[in-house]
Amino acid sequence: MSIDIETARKVAHLARIKVEEDRLPALAHEFNDILGFIEQLNEVDVEGVEPMTSVTPMRLKRRVDEVTDGNQQEKVLKNAPDAREGFFAVPKVVE
Amino acid sequence: MLDHIAYEAPAPKVIAGAKEDWELVIGMEVHAQVSSNAKLFSGASTQFGAEPNSNVAFVDAAMPGMLPVINEYCVEQAVRTGLGLKAEINLVSAFDRKNYFYPDLPQGYQISQLYHPIVGEGEVIVDMSPGVARLVRVERIHLEQDAGKSIHDMDPNMSFVDLNRTGVALMEIVSRPDIRGPEEAAAYLTKLRQILRYLGTCDGNMQEGSMRADVNISICRPGQYEKYMETQDFSHLGTRCEIKNMNSMRFIQQAIDVEARRQIAIVEDGGTVTQETRLYDPDKNETRSMRSKEEAHDYRYFPCPDLLPLEIEQGWVDDIAAGLPELPDAKKARFMGDFNLSEYDASVLTADTASASYFEAVAEGRDGKLAANWVINELFGRLKKEDHDITESPVSPAQLGGIIALISSDAISGKIAKELFEIVYTEGGDPAEIVEARGMKQVTDTGAIEAAVDQIIADNPAQVEKARENPKLAGWFVGQVMKATGGKANPKAVNELVAKKLAQ
């Protein structure tokens, strides 16, 4: 797989990261280097080896179904650039 | 014990195009909100209608450094749902990130289960009419986070975002394309909701958005669907379009109909249907392309690095299975067998657990058919008049049972029973005591009835003459006797006596 400038532009847009036009070729190059490294890993024969999901033998931690959090509207909204009447206020987004 | 009564598949819906006949092929993705106290990965409340942004933990708001910890009860609810749909439970499942950008999704991704869902293949038997049902296969159920809510009409230039719903657990229940018409789609959703409510895993409240559906629709020529079923090869079917986010049974049916007709017009015109996401506009009764979604829907799924695989034990699943309640199909079959009810009556009485247990309490040790008639016709009819739910019934099962016992023992006539029901409904009280206190008991004493009959005959010689020539006029005498006895005479006894006396 090879990443061209167009793909780099699209990925940046999907992630909402602003990349200047003249930076795109270098970015595509970096992507290709990363993918190249991963391709190299693909050469390892892992037939029959179970994927390792954690370096420590751990079971996924669970919580009980109890309300232990919330009721902190002020704190939740504190860093918002704009908040009104308890809501986050953002530029209009309508389908 | 019979799990479900025998049924035949319904005929698929056929829509006549300008040139040919077409059939519909429909698959549904139902998002059902899991009934739980706390969210899927945080300890914030799931309560509907709270002050905006008050049910929000820092995990839900995606504050830096916050990590998700799974709510075990939500997992249990998903497993319970899977078992209720006779589905396979995957002891190992995993969470993935579905990436997209939207203001009501602070994480920038939804935690979902694309590659390894917790529940595999199951089924729903969708009842259409007595003896007719469609078996709809369920492909999978996965657990995922709900998004927040955007409100667009509070300000001309801004959208307002409430994160209370962000992170609430959803089950996405994905069906195979086995639904063959708009009515079947609505019936599928109704049946699914009924099962989830029986299980207590989702409240099924569509107004509050607890159940929403994405509907996939394609069209095909008659005969093509059968080829697909034989081979499971989708190339026999048309290109599908997905109508997003519907939460009204009526709109779902309208949207399917109008979307099918749109596709038929395209194909008959020599065009091809483009696979895309569409939105239904009920005001204009049309579907519209959501082009904006197309590019954005490059979700770049990958396994969520914050969560280890979800491993559950067979013993735990078995415990949940052992605690499952009796489900609608089994309950309906049992009611038909134990109480000798018609499929229709049994369906009405098992529509929800509250109605079913009410009926069982009334019918216990009594005539099941009579009890069913009274619960469905009198009680449900009366409750509906006042827009009351069965749980708000002023008449308890014991009281209604009492009325039925009085009818069965011939203590009161059917007509008086209706009056008695009205008294119990509006004033309350013990039916037997009311009958005693108000002298409503049926007169079965033939001596008293005979005296009344004799009196009417003696008072109306002209009518007697006519009735002897035309026996159909005997009904007039019966009516007079009933009137004279205040409606308390046993109608059967009156009929017999009138006939006998007139023949003399």
What is shown here, in short?
Chain A is of the alpha+beta class and 95 residues long. Chain A has helices at 5-14, 24-42, 73-77; strands at 62-63, 83-84, 87-91. In chain A, a hairpin with a 2-residue loop joins strand 2 (83-84) and strand 3.
Oligomer: heterodimer
Largest interface: A-B, 37 and 53 residues
Rg of chain B, Å, rounded: 30 Å
Annotation field: number of helices of chain A: 3
Strand content of chain A: 5-15%
Silhouette of chain B: elongated
Q: Counting H and I runs of at least 4 residues, what is the number of helices of chain B? A: 17
General form of chain A? flat
Helix/strand class of chain B: alpha+beta
Poorly predicted tracts of residues of chain A: none
- What is the topology, as strand order, of the major beta sheet of chain A? 2-3
CA radius of gyration of chain A:
22 Å
> Which bin fits the share of residues in helices of chain B?
40-55%
Instruction: State the end-to-end distance of chain B.
Output: 57 Å
Determine the mean pLDDT of chain B: 92
Number of strands of chain B: 17
What structural category arises from helix and sheet content of chain A? alpha+beta
Number of domains of chain B: 3
